[in-house]
């Protein structure tokens, strides 16, 4: 069995993702402060007198650091659930359409194309308004059911390329049902792509939740990074210079999105060795590889490390 070559980019991304998970999961256990409790006045400056005041207070006199760790947890939960829903729906549509072909392929891809033609942000806003009393779970469901089309198209292309392989024909001749063939013979070839699609969907869902929260459509009764930014902007924290109210959630949101996108790119290198070798060749070409002195009348090209047999 071939070992997996994990690149430095992967380890950087993994460390960043682990840090965000640590903040969201362990942070509320370490900083045991009620994020809804009033502990001070309007935009009190940070001080190290108590843990609750490490990042000062917000517009409601609540602890910013307590809201931050709980907000990270909420945003990660919404991203995880919405990413799972989007990936699952897209996976089912893409697998069935690509493997079955024919009229079923036309029908499912027609639905997918219609969904792609409609701006997803508009649908998300309308559904969020229609849902009375939005919770973190319902918001994740709303984001999830609107973010699957591009995954369906990509999975469909992958499934189409796999369905005519010899082992698939052998499975058909053996009398296996098409659902069983999809689960045991087609899906394993797509697991690496599904993992990358899930990471990308999760990143998009977290940003979508932040955008909705900044429009006032965030989960009610809970704290998220988007809700923190909404109240910080609504109460003029930028204008008054209360950087501790808007800068921490902005940095955490940026870090989460960047770490997930970096993880997706690094997984692409891990699962696609050709891409990794191609980038190594380009780096060597830019750096310049010394070549042997050619004989008279003979022009030789530099030999790259990856081209040597």
Tally of contiguous helical segments = 13
| Structural category | mainly alpha
Beta fraction: under 5%
CATH superfamily: MetI-like
Segments where pLDDT lies below 50 for 5+ residues?
289-309
Q: What does the radius of gyration come to?
A: 25 Å
Binned, the helix content reads 55-70%
> What is the domain tally?
1
- Distance between the amino and carboxyl termini: 22 Å
Mean pLDDT: 85
Shape: elongated
CATH topology: MetI-like fold
Main β-sheet: number of strands, strand sense, barrel status? none
CATH architecture: Orthogonal Bundle
Beta strand count? 0
What's the CATH C level? Mainly Alpha
Query: What are the secondary-structure elements, in order, as H or E?
Result: HHHHHHHHHHHHH
Q: What is the oligomeric state here?
A: single chain
What do you see in this structure?
The chain is mostly helical and 309 residues long. The chain has 13 helices and no strands. The protein has helices at residues 8-25, 27-30, 64-100, 102-117, 120-130, 136-144, 149-162, 166-173, 178-214, 225-234, 237-240, 243-271, 273-287. Helix 3 (64-100) packs antiparallel against helix 9 (178-214) and helix 4 runs antiparallel to helix 7. The longest helix is centred in the first third of the chain and has 37 residues, at 64-100. It is elongated. The two termini are 22 Å apart. Mean pLDDT is 85; it is low at 289-309.
């Amino acid at each position: 069995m071939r070992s997996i070559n994990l690149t430095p980019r992967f380890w950087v991304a993994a460390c960043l993702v682990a840090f965000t998970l640590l903040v969201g999961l362990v942070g509320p256990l370490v900083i045991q402060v009620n994020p809804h409790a009033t502990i001070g006045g309007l935009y009190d400056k940070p001080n190290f007198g108590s843990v609750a005041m490490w990042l000062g207070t917000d517009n409601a006199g609540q602890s910013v650091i307590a809201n931050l760790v709980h907000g990270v947890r909420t945003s990660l939960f919404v991203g995880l659930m919405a990413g799972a829903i989007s990936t699952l729906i897209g996976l089912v549509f893409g697998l069935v359409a690509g493997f079955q072909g024919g009229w079923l392929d036309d029908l499912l891809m027609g639905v997918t194309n219609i969904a792609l033609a409609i701006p997803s942000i508009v649908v998300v806003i309308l559904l969020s308004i229609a849902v009375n009393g939005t919770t973190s779970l319902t918001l994740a469901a709303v984001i999830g059911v609107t973010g699957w089309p591009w995954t369906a198209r990509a999975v469909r292309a992958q499934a189409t390329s796999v369905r005519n392989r010899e082992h698939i024909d052998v499975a058909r001749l053996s009398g296996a049902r098409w659902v069983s063939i999809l689960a045991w013979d087609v899906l394993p070839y797509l697991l690496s792509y599904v993992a990358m699609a899930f990471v990308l969907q999760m990143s998009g869902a977290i940003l979508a939740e932040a955008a909705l929260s900044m429009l006032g459509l965030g989960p009610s009764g809970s704290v998220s990074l988007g809700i923190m930014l909404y109240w910080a902007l609504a109460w003029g924290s930028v204008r008054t210079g209360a950087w501790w109210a808007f800068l921490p959630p902005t940095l955490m949101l940026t870090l989460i999105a960047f770490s997930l996108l970096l993880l997706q790119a690094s997984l692409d290198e891990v699962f696609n060795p050709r891409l990794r070798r191609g980038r190594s060749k380009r780096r060597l070409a830019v750096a310049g590889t010394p070549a042997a002195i050619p004989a008279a009348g003979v022009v030789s090209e530099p030999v790259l490390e990856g081209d040597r047999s």
